[in-house]
Amino acid sequence: MIFENLLTTVENGILTITINRPDKLNALTRKTVEEIGAAVKNAESNKGVKGIIITGSGQKSFIAGADITEFLGISVEQGKDLARSGQNIFKSIENCSKPVIAAVNGFALGGGCELSMACHLRVASDNAKFGQPEVNLGLIAGYGGTQRLIQYIGKTKAMEFHMTGDMINAEQALNLGLVNYVVPQAQLLPKCIELLEKITSKSPEAVSSVINSINAYFENNVDGFKVETDEFGKCFSTEDFKEGTNAFMEKRKAVFAGK
Ligand code: COA
């Protein structure tokens, strides 16, 4: 697929999506968000893709937020529509059946912080900065940021984060549980690849069941235990389960087909 604001490459089954507006610190236009959604949707059905990395172009910024110039002069209804559309696309990333890692290579502000939180894992470079600075603009987060940050760092810090608009550095993000790892910039993509290679060597069916079950905890009106029960049961019907248990019995490494 050809995109206006993204670069995409597939190497050894890993799709890397790079938001490519470095002169605007990779700020997210509506079109860019739609392109990210389309790239992830395409990856879902592409058998050649086993895992996804989302990162920003350059060494300064992952994403410095939604593109503020697109906010000027929009109505209440247009604002709601923008939020709904962004939320739906970010939910599709969160619910992607293949593992998605945010490689946070600098500023992750506003929509950038929100996009990183919609990914399953976050690895930050040591110069990364996270923040939800929308209050400085008389706004709040609209792509799920008020809902997801609580899931990672709890209500106490989420309130402070959103109400002050302050930025935190990578080490603070690590201590709060917002990111999985902090590494030097040069190690960022290698670390993400290492993680994805480990995850994609496991049963894709089981990994997808992990994603569904853990996400279910945070869904309103969904019984997460019931989802876990169903996903657990489903595993017994897969080729991957047969291969995994056979390999254990035969004392060899399992080779999963993802079926
Ligand atoms: N939307 C649109 N353009 C943005 C942007 C955003 N969210 N963030 C940065 N840019 C643009 C700047 O306008 C500037 O463009 P210009 O060169 O045409 O003037 C360019 O990106 C570089 O940004 P600049 O502000 O000069 O870089 P800096 O290093 O001085 O500051 C930030 C970096 C991230 C602190 C600063 O750009 C910033 O505060 N951005 C907005 C963050 C924000 O509020 N995000 C939430 C939006 S809802």
Describe it.
This protein has 9 helices and 10 strands. By secondary structure, it is α/β, with parallel strands linked by helices. It folds into 2 domains: about 5-200, 2-enoyl-CoA Hydratase, Chain A, domain 1 (Alpha-Beta Complex); about 205-250. The radius of gyration is 19 Å and the shape is globular. Bound molecules: coenzyme A.
Question: How many domains, in number, for the residues?
Answer: 2
Helix content: 40-55%
Main sheet record: 6 strands, mixed
Supply the CATH class of the largest domain. Alpha Beta
What is the element string, with H for helices and E for strands?
EEHEEHEEHEEHEHEHHHH
First-residue to last-residue Cα separation: 26 Å
Q: Classify the secondary structure makeup into a structural class.
A: alpha/beta
Task: Outline the low-pLDDT stretches.
Answer: none
Helix segment tally = 9
Mean pLDDT: 97
Overall 3D shape? globular
